[in-house]
Amino acid sequence: MSPESQTPPSNSSSPRTGDLALGRRIAARREELGMSRKDLAAATELSYPHIAQIETGYRLPSAKHQLTLSRVLGISLDDLFGTAESLPALRAAVAPARSVRPSIDEAIDRAVRELETLPASVRLEALSRVQMEVMAGVVEDRSRTQR
Predict the structure, then answer these.
(1) The model scores a pTM over 0.85
(2) Which of 13, 27, 94, 121 is the most buried (most CB within 10 A)?
């Protein structure tokens, strides 16, 4: 039996070896996407008990599972681990300068690839939200040019 499929011991003396803040970020993002723990387990190919243990701080996800969780949840590892806020100056210094805008085809391909990393159960919701944000930006741009 793999460690991922084992359930935590039933006694309450089992030590927490995970990170409760990380677990809470994962649970919050999962809920934001409208996913249950069962949905997240299926999308990541981890067991339900493993997801529950991560979310409750009883264990940490392995490096391999960290990447899988970040992709399924549609967030970066920095956001997953809460390091994005603590390193803003470093991010700005390391961020590559983009001198050329992507073509429409490149932008669409990139958006499709990102949406396809989400679980099928939330892709349409994500696409709808992207469409609403793009339309809001178009309306804002038009109102600026009319002033």
Answers:
(1) no
(2) 27
